[in-house]
Specification:
The protein has about 280 residues and is mainly α. The chain contains ten helices and two strands; from the N terminus they run ααααααααααββ. The protein has a two-stranded antiparallel ribbon. Strand 1 and strand 2 form a beta hairpin. Helix 6 (about 120-140) runs antiparallel to helix 8 (about 175-190). The termini are far apart. It comes from Larkinella knui. It holds the Pfam family PAP2. This is Phosphatase PAP2 family protein.
Length: about 280
């Protein structure tokens, strides 16, 4: 937690320093606010039911547990199946805490006067980014059944190995959602102020720390293997960087842009444009 608070203080100082009169005020993004806010909130709202359905879908019973063989786990992941169960509860709480802080961290962007001017647009991009990440997560987690590490652990009771949410180890949603949030903040900050070189690398390096803390604790909670955590990090990073970049690309010449349309007569459609 001390590491996380230090990072927050560092970023706060960074944002306050940027929020000066000579800063760049024009947003680098094009946002379709009404469509993106309504669409992303609908997806995020539906995701609540999706998580519950996924937990039921990944149910394990005693027969399922009996079929598990730790020897079949790849050598890179196998040690996670034998971690100390006495640390599970504490690690679970820490992972949830770091996740919640990560998701809330883009609020720090509002410390910058320039970024506050585009607050609603950034909110639209942020919720859209998480909506895309949720869709990718469900598209992967529902069809892929991978038992959680704790179900292999001989020190864990059969009661704790059975029930809902025991075979949805791949990939780590906690890590993915955390990385999406922190990398989104780093992407927006570096895009808006056109930060390049080592400063950009430093900001993204700081953004990587919270998801790493989430991932370490998810493993020590018996929830995910190393490859689950690594995959979650990569997916989250792709969303946190990629979705804002797509909004940015639509402003450039020689690129593809997409614009939804709604006529006065109620007809719906979309316009795809390529600028040369």
């Amino acid at each position: 937690m001390k590491i996380y608070l230090t990072l927050i203080l560092w970023l706060t100082h960074y944002l306050v320093a940027f929020g000066q009169p000579d800063s760049v005020s024009r947003s680098p993004y094009r946002v379709y606010r009404a469509y993106e806010l309504s669409g992303s909130f609908a997806i995020l709202g539906a995701s609540i039911f999706g998580y519950r359905a996924l937990d039921r879908h990944s149910n394990f019973n005693a027969d399922d547990v009996a079929k598990l063989n730790p020897a079949r786990i790849n050598a890179f992941d196998r040690p996670i199946a034998y971690l100390d169960p006495s640390r599970f509860e504490g690690a679970q709480k820490r992972s949830d805490r770091f996740l919640n802080l990560s998701i809330a961290s883009p609020i720090l962007l509002m410390l910058s006067k320039d970024l506050r001017k585009n607050g609603l647009d950034l909110l639209a991009i942020y919720t859209t980014t998480h909506a895309v990440n949720n869709l990718l997560y469900f598209a992967t987690a529902f069809p892929i059944r991978r038992a959680r590490p704790l179900t292999y652990n001989p020190a864990v009771s059969i009661t704790d190995k059975t029930g809902n949410a025991k075979s949805n180890s791949f990939y780590s949603g906690h890590v993915s959602f955390s990385t999406t949030a922190t990398f989104f903040g780093a992407k927006v900050l570096t895009d808006h102020y056109r930060i390049k070189g080592w400063k950009r690398i430093a900001i993204f390096s700081v953004a990587a720390v919270p998801p790493i803390l989430v991932g370490v604790n998810r493993m020590h909670a018996g929830k995910h293997f190393r490859t689950d955590v690594m995959t979650g990090f990569l997916v989250g990073a792709a969303c946190g960087i990629g979705v804002p970049e797509l909004h940015k690309i639509s402003r450039k010449k020689g690129q593809l842009s997409f614009r939804p349309n709604l006529s006065l007569t109620g007809q719906r459609g979309a316009t795809v444009t390529y600028l040369f």
